[in-house]
Amino acid sequence: MANTSPSRLFQLPAALRSAALSTSLAPTLSRTPKPLVPATTPSPGRAYATATLPPPPAQSSVNQAEVSHFNTLASAWWDPHGSSRLLHLMNPLRHDFIRRCTNQEVRDPNEKLHYLDIGCGGGIFAESAARMRNVSTVTAVDPTPEVIAVARKHQRVDPTLLEPGKLTYLQTSIEELSRQKEVRQQYDIITLFEVIEHIQQPSPFLQSILKHLKPGGWLVGSTIARTPVSWFTTKLMAEEVLGIVPRGTHEWSQYIQPQEMRDWARQQKALSTSEGVGWQVMGVVYVPGIGWKEVRGSESLGNYFFGMKKRDDAE
Amino acid sequence: MSSPALLKRFLALPPSLRRSFWSSSARASPAGKPEIYDVVCVGGGPAGLSFVSALKSHSATQGFKVALIDSQDLTTSRTVNDADSYSNRCSSLTPSSLRFLKGIGAWERVNGDRTQAYHAMDVWDGVSGSKIHFDSVDKRSTGLLGAIAEMVPGSRFRASRRQYETSAEEAVVATMCENSSLASALLQRVKDFETEEQTAQVQMWDKTKVDSIDLGPEAEDEKSLDLSQWPIVSTQHGQIAARLLVGADGANSPVRQFAGIPSHGWDYNQHGVVATLHLDRTFSANELRTAYQRFLPTGPIALLPLPGNKASLVWSTTPQHAAKLKSLSPTDFTAAVNAAFRLMPVDINYMLATTTTTTDSQAEEFAWREAATPPSSTGLPPNFPHITGVQLGTPASFPLKMRHADTYTGHRLALIGDAAHTIHPLAGQGLNLGLADAEALAKQIVYGMEHGMDIGSSWCLDGYNSERWAANHAMIGVVDKLKKVYSAGSGPVVWGRSLGLGVVERLGPVKAAFMGAAAGVR
What we know:
The structure holds two protein chains of two kinds.
Chain A: H1 7-10, H2 14-25, H3 44-51, H4 64-73, H5 85-102, E1 113-118, H6 124-131, E2 135-142, H7 145-155, E3 167-171, H8 174-177, E4 187-193, H9 202-210, E5 213-224, H10 228-241, H11 258-267, E6 271-272, E7 279-287, E8 291-294, E9 303-310
Parallel strand pairs in A: 1-2, 1-4, 2-3, 4-5
Antiparallel strand pairs in A: 5-9, 6-9, 7-8, 7-9
Helix pairs in contact in A: 5-6
Chain B: H1 4-11, H2 15-25, E1 35-42, H3 46-56, E2 66-69, E3 90-93, H4 95-103, E4 116-118, E5 120-125, E6 131-135, H5 136-139, H6 143-151, H7 157-165, E7 174-178, H8 179-192, E8 202-205, E9 212-215, E10 231-235, E11 238-247, H9 254-259, E12 263-283, E13 290-296, E14 299-305, E15 308-317, H10 319-327, H11 330-342, H12 345-353, H13 361-371, H14 375-378, E16 387-390, E17 396-405, E18 409-410, E19 413-415, E20 421-422, H15 430-450, H16 458-486, H17 492-506, H18 508-519
Parallel strand pairs in B: 1-2, 1-11, 2-8, 5-13, 11-19
Antiparallel strand pairs in B: 3-7, 4-7, 5-6, 9-10, 10-11, 12-15, 12-16, 12-17, 13-14, 14-15, 17-20, 18-19
Helix pairs in contact in B: 3-8, 3-15, 4-15, 11-13, 15-16
């Protein structure tokens, strides 16, 4: 799977090569705080990608360029050696992190939780959540029709996942979910794994998610910090040099810093953001040959998990 | 399918063709959907039974729906309790195996009067007489400073450690146990889960032959359950689908053949001769015991202690010697075993090569040759006991071979024990490796359950394969090379190895590593 031919480097678009140069020369660039407010105009970098596609429907977080990109990935979701391998390897850490968040308070050992997985893709996390003993139901949504088809097909190979109501896939955006009255509207755990970096306007997107969180519930996600390190690993190495994931999977300028995430959370009245009991962060690093490992403090370097709790007295 | 070449060609066929082959060879399956099990374990030997017990002992997996299938009758002929007779098939359980067996509640069901711990091991070379002494003090590594301190002439460092740091439990190098005692204890363990409230019962199907293993049917439509990648096991009890099919079904594993996993290796041109022996001394239960192993050019011979005045013999030798030994009268067999420990290799070869069939001729040969062989010339350990007899009917032999599967896992499939690897029983490691497999696989499945994995998927099973395959490969390699080094009869290899043993004997930490590997101490 690795394509290490050096000539590939020179096949990079000129814009990327110069971006590489400027990033490495001015590392402080990435430290500039980036407010999560909606941008008034799309960035020039995205214009060429969206121009040929119909404009996104009003008030939807769905980025059509991203949707079409993930369509082409559909078949690789469940291939053990395909481009989703790193996501599969990360999956156990997602459960560990959720446990860390929920275990901030004493839990009833017999509780059964309702999960909502946003941007479920081929169902890697949604399936695993549905198999957990403390999970009652999992509702998994994704706007891309092809990945929902892949997820539904793979669901059929495991009888546990076919138990009525256990795991439901919906091809929908989070905004449309609110309009589907037959679907459960509030959840104990909402997950958002490797999604936020694909969203052009994260703030309204996150706010529309909070409505679906039960009081006392956790919004848990993972994403990538916008740093020279993450540009090097996710754009240059993963997409271009090694070819671990297809080119165009990541849009580096949309990456969000953990501090930006927390600043946003502090502005939300519904959220409890005190360290530990209401806010959790965990940096993880992929070590080839070993897998994903938690590395304290690495959240400001690259991949990290975040968890924020809705106040018990919120609506 | 009897010839290996034919099997290899069969395995080269595409899976769809293999599948149709298996289907056509299977008897007509009854209509209706197969019953779905979390784990189907084929093989009720120590590896399979301990694996099932390990699953049932953990809260994350005790609710599993488990089926265990064995072609033999598991309930009878497992309860020999005559205090004066011991099975010829015994194993030397390492401290890690014992820890695992205690953890799953099996060891407390083994009859403690029939097991024997030993606390030291004397190994010596049949040609050069150089020797090595292992005891549990060596297992504790002390680092470089300790090693240097020990090597200073006249140092009392080591002696003082030995005196003050050895507690009874830690002093055990390994524990001898009859395979049948262990099997019946494990079977009892699995049966006793019936009485535990939280635990789902294990479906035991013994005296049951696996008729076929196929992949499941194609799904009926686009919405229904798709078992086309699930193994379906057909027996007289019907068809069952396995989320995870575990092959604990021995060296000729049908499960491994279903998966098309090749197993490579070679046959040593050697046989292992086993027997239960009587010694000239009766040991009480709390005495410290020693195991003995001598490397002869024809292979190693080991005397492993059993309770009282009993001991277990494991003698690897040429097929000709093995055949000769089995034909001897009890008196001559006893004399030949004494000879193998006490005489020079040339004498042993002469005795076993001779064609005389007169009863008691071996005993006479041994008597005068022993008188002519001073113990100092052979390196015989000072406390080595005399063997006075052999339990009737126990001498037996089996061919030695080495096999290692290319991988231990496939989609919804895992191999443990002899199905995954068969090794030369030089260090008595076969059963220990199987127990370690069972422990590692059960641990991996618990991890999978705690992280929402499909326990039959490669995401769950990869960890087991990478942990155990590499470990077993290393052990197989060490045992195999050790065997090759010690089977040389003369020349530079003998000088080298006597020098080697001499050096190892002086280097505590090196011995510790050597012995740690042999005892499975991690």
